[in-house]
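Archive entry. Fields below.
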Amino acid sequence: MKILVLNAGSSSQKSSLYNIEGNILPQQHPEPIWEASIDWTASNDFGTLKVKANNTKQEIKLDPNQRVEGISKVLETLTQGETQVIDQLSEIDVVGHRVVHGGSDYCEATRITSEVKAEIERLITLAPNHNPAHLEGIEAIERVLADVPQVAVFDTAFHSKMPRSSAVYPIPYEWFEQGIRRYGFHGTSHKYCAQRAAQLLDKPLESLQLITCHLGNGCSLAAIRDGISVDTTMGFTPLEGLMMGTRSGSIDPAILIYLMRNQGFNAEQLDQLLNKESGIKGITGKSSDMRYVLEQIEKGDDRAKLAFEMFIHHLKTSIGSMLGNITRLDALVFSAGIGEHSAPVREAACAGFEFLGLKIDVEKDAKSPIDTDIATEDSQVKVFVIHTEEDWAIASECWQMMH
Ligand code: ADP
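PREDICTED_STRUCTURE:
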């Protein structure tokens, strides 16, 4: 079965093609036979399409005013040139889309119909940077592959069984009824990491209690009890919770009221401040990148040191708050750019949790071994570094839906 995955963001678009032979879904993720990514941010004059297949790499410039054509270009590279892996697009059996926001109604992967599209469109107010890009992708596929089933895999779905006590905000209940609630995000990644941790532990996920830490440009934690996400740090939007690359995470909401009353901030300015100019970027004043922070600390930069200490402070206090919803911790899981590659972040995040019986092996940690336990032999809590495979998780959902 050939499964195309489209993972569209506001400024990037990643795609992969998986070829799954036979009738059994592989336990471990196979490599995609073709991968493509478009980056719209590197230059104002053009977008860059990078394609990898058949052991070759190709780079193509795209017109930034023709984003929808960009997707057609991506699809062309599947059937033409050095990166050709299929003869015609009709060989694709199913297309899976990562959709950031599925609202309250979608608690699992869903076949895309006109109603589902209408709901993704309705939710644009809640995910203005992402849901329009998802619709662009869905419609581009409809134009060239009208009869091929398309599946939406929602970032919010894994958190949809969260108890009301986690989901409802302590504001007048009517707002909950109007959709202002904790939805949680990065669900596909948290679910994949939890399932992979269960595989590594050789135990059913339903028997485990885990905390998964997705630490990329966006950062979130999930508390997973018996296979269900019972709490997560992101909320109504991906702005809540941990300190992130450019997002502030949770701050006293009265700061917003103050800025509006006394500094004349409007909604757009607050949005820009909290989503784009805060977090690591806001503190260093230069970069949102954890690698930059670690390099600058070596050079004695005090702001970089502060950014690191704050990142760890918020990470640890949030791990603490996730503990409130589980009764035991079988494993702490680190994933995504920072979680997978930054040994100092993992070491500092674990320091102080020895009272839980959690002991990190600093030498193992330093090697950032993927899909491996980096706790000491006698640690009562496993600490996994897991390479998140969101695209494969989406492909697996599609495969399951087609069987
Ligand atoms: P996104 O959330 O956009 O998918 P990623 O998961 O790729 O982002 O994570 C990006 C973050 O990972 C950046 O802060 C980057 O600095 C960090 N990162 C990537 N590699 C390393 C590394 N070797 N050491 C520390 N941080 C890293």
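CURATOR_NOTE: Residues 60 and 310 are 40 Å apart (CA to CA).
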